[in-house]
Specification:
This protein is of the alpha+beta class. It has helices spanning about 1-15, 25-30, 30-35, 40-50, 55-65, 115-125, 135-145, 150-160, 165-180, 185-195, 200-210, 235-245, 255-265, 285-295, 305-315, 325-375, 385-400, 405-430, 440-460, 485-510, 510-520, 525-530, 535-555, 565-580, 585-605, 610-625, 635-640; strands spanning about 70, 80-85, 85-90, 100, 105-110, 215-220, 225-230, 270, 275, 315-320, 475-480, 485. The protein is about 65% helix and about 10% strand. The strands form four sheets. Strands 4-3-2-1-5 form a five-stranded antiparallel beta sheet. Helix 17 packs antiparallel against helix 18 (about 405-430) and helix 17 (about 385-400) packs parallel to helix 19 (about 440-460).
Amino acid sequence: MIRVLLSLIWLVASAGLAAAQDLQTVLQTHAEEVASPSRGSVSVVLDDLADLGSPQVSVFLEQWADRNVWQNDETGLFYIGEEDGDEIALTDLDSGEETTAASDGYTQLRPNGGVRRVIGSALVQFQLTDPDPDRRRSALESIGRRADPSQLPLLEASLEGEADPAIRARKVQLITFLTARFGGNVADRVAAIESLSTDTSVEARGVLNQILSTSNDATQGEPNGNIARIRDPSSDPAAFYSELVEADLAPSLVTPGDIRAALEANIVNGRVGGVPTATLGTDAARAQAYAALAADGLAPPLVTQADLAETLSGFTFFEKYDEPDATITDAARKTLDAVETRVGVAQTVDLTLDGLSLASIYFLAAIGLAITFGQMGVINMAHGEFIMMGAYTGYVMQLVVPDYTVSLLIALPLAFAVTFGAGVAMERLVIRHLYHRPLETLLATFGISIALQQIAKNVFGTQARPLTSPDWLGGALVISDVIQISYIRIAIFILALVFLGLLLFILRRTRLGLEVRAVTQNPGMAASMGINPDRINMMTFGLGSGIAGVAGVGIGLYAQVTSEMGSNYIVQSFMTVVVGGVGSVFGTLAGAGLIGFLQKGIEWLNPSNTLAAQTYMILFIILFIQFRPKGIVAPKGRAAAD
């Protein structure tokens, strides 16, 4: 594999040369330095290679640093080699010609770690102007990981001939970062730092934080240098005293263990410091004996709390910027504060988008229930299974139609048809016999939900099935380093808006909607006007179930498709409908928004415990219902009377 890659590299590199460049000749003039390089001698070789200006130099340096260069023991010539048993696959440095030879006639060059770092730094210089864009990107990634002042002039020199807009923009960004940290004069550094005020990337903030890096120090007089802040030793006297001990500015604290060891080491004729050992059973006696040892120079002096406080009072503790110029650090602090403000705003926007996305998912899951429960008053515990049926319909369509876009377009109306039919069958066979009997309805639909889950397990198994989104829904919309949202979530949000508009149109602009509203508000009066309440209930239940099926296709693109996926949304769906207001489409929308934003907000405050977030959300909703039992949008008609 390496031989094929090298051949391609040499072919591309050689195509751009007007005349052959003899890399081997240059290396032979420094054969000893190449074979046994040191950090001092390798720079001579690298300077001559830079003057050569050959694209092969970059390849050679890469292989040299990776210890893939071999030298012929007889001729002294260098080759790129890949060992294979007793043989070596050799590649000529200039022509790229491949040969095979016995390995016992060649010596592998093994530069040490220091030399390899020097080679790596030089390699960046060649890669920044390499004709291959991937090599230039690799060099920029290397600079981004290990910034160094020596890289700044190399970047600036390579900028003029850069034709790729993306690579050029990255070079400009890195030049700004390096100038901010290592620029030659204060004005240039301040200008580079201030230009970062609109850059909210982690990398830019890292540069500013590196400029603002500090170290702890202490002095007995006024502090000198670029002071970041004065520290208060009263916050943790022991820790501050330890700093003085480490700096050899104060004697070490003597621990009880140190006292015991000193006493044991100085027992003479049954006494320690003139105190009989038999009386050393108390702290006071041990302290007296130890003080005597310290007075005789046999142990370090005992530091009392009073001594510690007196010592600390004689020092000023402070944080000092590692950057000595206050102008630089002032500019960096001001810029970082501006960036952090922007990041805070961006995080708020990102959290809002997350909450909006979650709200749209809950709205999709609950909108069908808003019809069956809100309009009809039927507690349908199998609503989640209609969502599951819709998701499995999308999965089956992808098995039949391999084009994900086409299968998705077919799955949406098909899922509606399948779950509409299932909802009508359920209403005709079970629900119609249980109207105005909520407990029996709840138990019956709960049993149906369990049966539907088991049927799904028998048909599709217990493993999660993939409902793959089309390529055009892959990835995410990246607004900044902080703000981004996946295209699938955007699609679900749009689907939720479509459903909202479609449902409002059906309920307010169609005969079915007029009859549904009439039956909902006063079924007796509607029947006297020639409307068949049984038929309307059947169509309403079928409509709610069909919408749940289409929602299942959308949710399946985001969540795992399993036989139990519906149970993950049934509780949130009921909460959405109840909080929003039973029987109101806009109430369902408001409830989904409240629950979605509330959950995301609690997760942001407590990101390490999602279960706690769910618990807090439910508690909040319970309290909310206590103060507004009819929900955000109060119901009307039959639902209000109930």
